[in-house]
Design a protein that fits this description.
There is one protein chain. With about 350 residues, this protein is α+β, with helices and mostly antiparallel strands. The chain has 2 domains: about 230 residues, no CATH class; about 110 residues, no CATH class. Strands 1-9-4-5 form a 4-stranded antiparallel sheet, with no helix packed on it. A 3-stranded antiparallel sheet has the order 6-7-8, with no helix packed on it. It starts with a helix and ends with a helix.
Length: about 350
């Protein structure tokens, strides 16, 4: 049975293996160059005060970065659609399953061997691709220093995605019994599940932290400036709100603040927050807000509201616990889907 499954699958497997070898050679040639370029330019750019040009030079050399990220994102869905969905559906369409079942091969063994061989190939493909891209892109990832922005494209979760997509394709192919509809349903279903997990499960699978920080809004000669960020720049922020000292929410973005409704008598309303407790000396001309006395009065108004920055976030230190948790979720989903496919094959297919 294993030999039969391999003969049916070997052409696809050998084509994908060849593509992986070509990609591995290309990355192996280019990767050391990128690492050397990072170490000699970006790593010490602050000492030479040329970080802008150094970063631009490095990113120009790492031109494959976006394409490889898209490839890692797309491969699990492609494996589910082209390897998972036809695995059983095509056999049922052509009725070749009946030949195997009449040759003393049980339905359970038939299903299990097909899933084991093709599923293992899917896991190996996604694992090798993720390993290669994670290694090659490591200098660029250090430059960006935003691990959660690349969470879906690095380390172990792409492997779990691939196994889940494959299992989803197998289950849908078994139930739908038509190859093309099963392939379309696999891509759509996988996209929906990935969206739901990314938006609702990942931020909350481990209870997020809450930070209540002073929010400083400063006036400058060119307008309003502010620093609004999580405790660490590479944390995963789920909610970032601005509130007064009493806890009243005034905005979810500092860009919505900084506007003043000034009256001729010197009274002013800080838009979205409240009325200033002090008078604002007015000056004529288009650059009235640059007058030191006016700026000082406006700043006193801003400071009087004691604005706070309330952040719900996952710290960067939880990157690996979240990777393991999400991989476990998709692994559990894959096992459940394969169990459904096996049960359907044994009980519902005539």
């Amino acid at each position: 049975m294993i030999w039969l499954v391999w003969r049916q699958f070997r052409t696809q497997a050998l084509v994908v293996a060849g593509l992986l070898v070509v990609l591995a050679i290309a990355l192996a040639i280019n990767g050391p160059h990128l690492l050397h370029l990072y170490d000699t330019t970006v790593a010490n750019c602050a000492q030479h005060n040329n970080c802008v040009s150094a970063r631009a030079l490095f990113q120009a050399q790492a031109k494959w970065h976006n394409a490889l990220n898209l490839l890692v994102l797309a491969v699990p869905a492609l494996l589910g659609a082209f390897w998972g969905a036809p695995l059983v559906a095509r056999e049922l369409e052509t009725r070749t399953n009946l030949l195997a079942w009449t040759q003393s091969v049980t339905r359970s063994r038939w299903f299990s061997v097909k899933v084991a061989v093709t599923g293992a190939a899917s896991v190996i493909t996604a694992g090798l691709l993720s390993l290669m891209v994670t290694w090659w892109a490591s200098p660029h990832d250090r430059l960006v220093d935003s691990p959660y922005s690349l969470f879906d494209q690095r380390d172990i979760v792409p492997v779990a995605y691939a196994l889940f997509a494959f299992a989803l394709g197998v289950a849908l192919g078994t139930i739908i019994r038509r190859t093309l509809p099963a392939m379309a349903a696999t891509i759509a279903g996988y996209a929906v599940v990935r969206y739901l997990v990314t938006e609702y499960v990942r931020p909350n699978v481990i209870a997020p932290l809450k930070a209540n920080l002073p929010f400083v809004l400063r006036l400058t000669g060119t307008g309003v400036g502010a620093t609004i960020r999580p405790p660490q720049p590479n944390d995963l922020v789920m909610s970032n709100q601005i509130a007064t000292g009493t806890g009243q929410l005034v905005s979810e973005s500092w860009e919505n603040l900084g506007q003043f409704d000034l009256k001729g008598n010197g009274s002013a309303v800080f838009t979205g927050v409240g009325r200033c407790p002090n008078r604002i000396p007015l000056s004529a001309g288009p650059h009235w807000h640059t007058i030191p006395a006016t700026q000082a009065a406006l700043q006193r108004c801003i400071d009087s509201f004691h604005l706070r920055q309330v952040i719900i976030y996952q710290p960067a230190s939880r990157y690996w616990p979240l990777q393991l948790s999400e991989a476990a979720i998709f692994l559990g989903g894959a096992i459940a889907l394969l169990a459904v496919g096996l049960w359907w094959t044994r009980k519902r297919i005539a």
